[in-house]
UniProtKB/TrEMBL annotation:
Protein name: Uncharacterized protein
Record organism: [Myrmecia] bisecta
An example Gene Ontology molecular-function term: ribonuclease T2 activity
Annotated keywords: Disulfide bond, Hydrolase, Lyase, Signal
Sequence intervals crossing the membrane: none
Organism phylogeny: Eukaryota, Viridiplantae, Chlorophyta, core chlorophytes, Trebouxiophyceae
GO process terms (BP): RNA catabolic process
Similarity comment text for this entry: Belongs to the RNase T2 family.
Active site: H53, E103, H107
Length: 209
C-alpha cells in the first residue's frame, strides 16, 4: 500500500542556535497533491511546487509554544506581501486569510524575540521558502517526478542536505510520511526507506512504498 508524503519540515538554525534557550524554527512545506489526498481540498491542486504550511517556533527540549499572546491577525500590515502569500502560502482547504490567521495566532505570536511583528513573521517564511528551494534541490540530484521510478529516502535526504545545508530525517506516522526534521532534537530514524515521486496529476503525490 502506498503511503502518502504530506509535508517536509526543516529546522532553521539561521534564526537561532539549537543550544540557546530561545526557540528555533521549523519551516514546513507541503506537497499539495498529497495534502489533497489526505484532506478535502476546495480546488484541485495545480503546479509542481511545494507550498508553505507554516513557520513554527520550537524549543530545544522538544516542546513547542503556541498561542502566546492575544495579538490578532491584521491583513493591513501585510499589504506588500499579500501577492506572494497567495502564491506561495495558499490554503488548500478554505480561505487563505483564515489559514494565515491560524498560523499567526498559533505560531507567529510565539516567534519572539527573534521575530516580533506580523510583517516580519510572514516575510521571513516567504524568504526562507524561496531561498530553500526543494524542487531545485531534488532536480539537481536527478530526483524528478516520475510514475515509474522509486527513490531511496537516503538519496532524497542527501540531495536536500547538499543543496540546502539541512539534513532532514524523514519519518512515517499513522501510515503517512509527515515530516523531515533537521533539528538536533529529532531522534527518529527513517521509517520509509523507499519513496515514489509520481507526476503531480490527479491524486498523485510523493508516496512511500
Amino acid at each position: 500500500m502506498a503511503i502518502t508524503f504530506a509535508s517536509i519540515l526543516f529546522a532553521l538554525a539561521v534564526l537561532s542556535t539549537a543550544a540557546s534557550a530561545e526557540p528555533f524554527f521549523y519551516l514546513v512545506r507541503q506537497w499539495p497533491t498529497t495534502a489533497c489526498d489526505v484532506y478535502h481540498c476546495h480546488d484541485p491542486p495545480h503546479g509542481r511546487d511545494f507550498s508553505i504550511h507554516g513557520l513554527w517556533p520550537n524549543n530545544d527540549d522538544g516542546t513547542w509554544p503556541s498561542f502566546c499572546s492575544q495579538t490578532k491577525f491584521r491583513r493591513n500590515e501585510l499589504r506588500e506581501l499579500i501577492d506572494e502569500m497567495n502564491k506561495y502560502w495558499p490554503s488548500l482547504t478554505g480561505s487563505n486569510e483564515v489559514f494565515w490567521t491560524h498560523e499567526w495566532e498559533k505560531h507567529g505570536t510565539c516567534a519572539g524575540p527573534q521575530i516580533t511583528t506580523q510583517h516580519d513573521f510572514f516575510a521571513a517564511a516567504l524568504h526562507l521558502h524561496k531561498t530553500l528551494n526543494i524542487e531545485d534541490a531534488l532536480s539537481a540530484a536527478s530526483i524528478v517526478p516520475s510514475d515509474s521510478t522509486t527513490y531511496d529516502t537516503a538519496d532524497i535526504v542527501a540531495a536536500l542536505r547538499d543543496a540546502l545545508g539541512f539534513a532532514p530525517i524523514i519519518t512515517c506516522h499513522n501510515g503517512t510520511i509527515e515530516e523531515a526534521c533537521t533539528a538536533p532534537a529529532c531522534h527518529n530514524q527513517h521509517t520509509c526507506p523507499h519513496v515514489r515521486y509520481p507526476e503531480p496529476k490527479g491524486s498523485a503525490a510523493i508516496a512511500a512504498v
